[in-house]
Design brief:
With about 210 residues, this protein is an alpha+beta fold. Helices cover about 50% and strands about 15% of the residues. It contains five helices and five strands. Strands 1-3-2 form a three-stranded antiparallel beta sheet, with no helix packed on it. The chain has a two-stranded antiparallel ribbon with strand order 4-5. A hairpin with a 2-residue loop joins strand 2 and strand 3. The N and C termini lie far apart (about 75 Å). About 15% of the residues are buried.
């Protein structure tokens, strides 16, 4: 993928990468067996095809929302990647996440700009899912790098098990207000039940 080295575009790049990450997280958490996810699947397929334009020679595929098995395989791959990031963030040592094989060309685009372009090694045409997984790995690397996110900003909601990230340094435990409120309500009901039980036991003793 081509990346220009300019400071002026940093804000627009950050906004674009946040949009990309939002969509990837939404795709990772979606129920792909539900017809309501079809618009999301089409948007995700369009996004991948846009990314693949830069790798036509080594990545000879066209993604379609109708390729259900490929879509489900990619979703599983995303979940594996996010899970690995979250698990490794619990440690304070350097740990490997994944490797993308290819080469980087560093060039001058104009007298005022440098740019780098990553190119995959050739992909075997019969292994479409693996090729897509490699593209996803590269996309995630570039998003996380450009957003300068720390590993601990990625989480899995303890209530609904959805993956999410903190857009700011402010720590979040749950993916949404809804999940947070549901847990607090559950704890309140449990405490109320314990209190009622204790009061009932004390009343029986009298």
């Amino acid at each position: 993928m081509k990346k220009n080295w300019t400071s002026k575009k940093q804000k627009s790049i950050t906004h674009e990468k946040r949009d990309h990450l939002d969509m990837l997280v939404e795709f990772t958490n979606a129920d792909l067996t539900n017809g309501s996810s079809n618009p999301l699947m089409r948007r995700f397929a369009d996004f991948l095809n846009l990314m693949m334009v830069q790798h036509r020679k080594t990545h000879p595929y066209i993604m379609s929302a109708e390729k259900t098995s490929i879509m489900q395989g990619l979703q599983k791959h995303f979940r594996t990647r996010f899970y690995k990031i979250i698990q490794n963030s619990q440690h304070y040592v350097e740990l490997p996440l994944w490797t993308v094989e290819g080469s980087i060309n560093f060039k001058v685009d104009t007298p005022y700009r440098f740019y780098e372009r990553f190119q995959f090694h050739n992909v075997k045409e019969e292994n479409e899912l693996e090729a897509m997984e490699r593209l996803i790995d590269l996309i995630l690397i570039e998003i996380i790098r450009d957003l300068d996110f720390r590993p601990r900003r990625f989480h899995q909601c303890p209530k609904c098990k959805s993956y999410f990230y903190q857009p700011t340094e402010k720590e979040r435990i749950y993916c949404s207000i809804r999940c947070g409120d549901a847990v607090r309500l559950q704890k309140f009901r449990q405490e109320k039940k314990k209190l009622q039980k204790r009061l009932s036991e004390e009343s029986d003793k009298k």
